[in-house]
Amino acid sequence: MKLNFLYLTYFIFILVSFSCKDNFNPKAPFKEQYVLNCIVRGDSTAQIATLSKTYDVTGFDPNSNNIDPSISGAQVYLKWNGTLYQLRDSSIARTDTSRYKDPIKFYYTNAIKPAANDSLEIMAIPVPGVLLSSKTKVPYFVSFGTSPYIIQGDEIALDYGWTAHDLNDYYLPQMKILYQKRNESPTVTHTFIVPLDYVTVNGVETPVYPTVSPAPGIEFLRSNIDRALLQVSNGDDKSNYKFLWIDFELLVFDQFLAGYISTTNGFLDNLSIRLDEPNYTNINGGLGIFGAYVYNVFQISLYDQYLESLGYTP
After folding, report:
1. What value does the mean pLDDT take over residues 60-85?
2. Residue 3 has pLDDT above 70, yes or no
3. How far is CA 131 from CA 107, 135, 180, 192, in A?
4. Please, are residues 189 and 178 in contact by the beta-carbon 8 Å criterion?
């Protein structure tokens, strides 16, 4: 899943014509504000934050700005278990230089790996006299209960459920096939993501994958798992493929990430356009998001007879 990091987005306003004499201006008066983003990972010691400021443009297209609003040289701290950790100022070369040419600026530490339900605070001083701050808690890991831990080949569907410790949490599930190629040297473990479903749009069949949801469970049709396993070889000699197992992965987002996701995406569908989409923030003194997530994985075995029924050699 790419759940890489969540950033605040800038929205493009849609101009419409009105049959009235009043002028319509989609731009509010500009106010410079500082933006702090940090998503704490409960499965890693590497924690990263970004710091920037809002900007104005001539016209209505925010993408016309080509001056990177990121800020370096600031003081950024994470407080965990009563200890204050200062994040290091760093940068990395930008792979896409079509808009910004400068390296990507960020702040990081490799000294923090919080446990479930740990409290954290973040503080940033972009310029003297300005303080940005926020607090959060790391979500609990889940328990998968009686979820099926093996695929035999006679199931119609496989239901995966987990214990919801906090009703404000959101979840992002993913089913990932792990396999190797027997004729490949050195041996590499490959992955293939199982679609939740398939839809046909304009005559083209497209896979659909799970999305972020507050529901503490999900169902995968066995027919879609079969199809994914068969797509791995994609017409090649099936005897060249060795299947290891399937990982059912689950990201659990805390209430602030859940709030950000539901506020910015929860009301949208394929036919909706919102001109008044709100800016979600839990940063005191500025804008941005300070949240946390944890990574869970549940291993699913594959029966030899099931693989043989698909034409594979166990």
Report:
1. 90
2. no
3. 16, 14, 51, 45
4. yes
Q: What end-to-end distance do the CA atoms of the chain give, in Å?
A: 27
Decide: 249 and 297 in contact? Cβ < 8 Å.
Answer: yes
Tell me the three-class secondary structure of 71-135, residue by residue.
CCCCEEEEEECCEEEECEEEEECCCCCCCCCCCEEEEEECCCCCCCCCEEEEEEECCCCCCEEEE
Where would I find the beta strands (DSSP E) of 165-283? Answer: 170-181, 189-193, 197-201, 204-208, 217-221, 241-253
Phi then psi for residue 201, to 5 deg, are -125, 120
Q: Determine if the pTM surpasses 0.70.
A: yes
Q: Are 284 and 123 in contact (CB under 8 A)?
A: no
Which ranges in the chain belong to alpha helices (H)?
A: 222-233, 255-265, 304-309
Burial of 248 (0-12, 13-18, 19+ CB in 10 A): buried
Q: What is the sign of the dihedral through the CA atoms of 57, 61, 67 and 72? A: positive
Lowest-confidence pick of 231-240, 259-268, 278-287: 259-268
Measure the CA–CA gap between 3 and 203, rounded to whole angstroms.
Answer: 30
- The letter for the amino acid at 35 is V
Q: For residue 303, which of 144, 146, 154 has the smallest C-alpha distance?
A: 154
Question: Which phi and psi (to 5°) does residue 76 adopt?
Answer: -130, 130
The radius of gyration computed from the CA coordinates of the chain, to the nearest angstrom, equals: 23
Provide mean pLDDT across the span 290-302: 95
Are 190 and 132 in contact by the 8 Å Cβ rule? The answer is: no
The single-letter code of the amino acid at 77 is Y
Task: Calculate the alpha carbon distances from 48 to 36, 43, 87, 90, 110 in Å.
Answer: 11, 13, 8, 10, 9
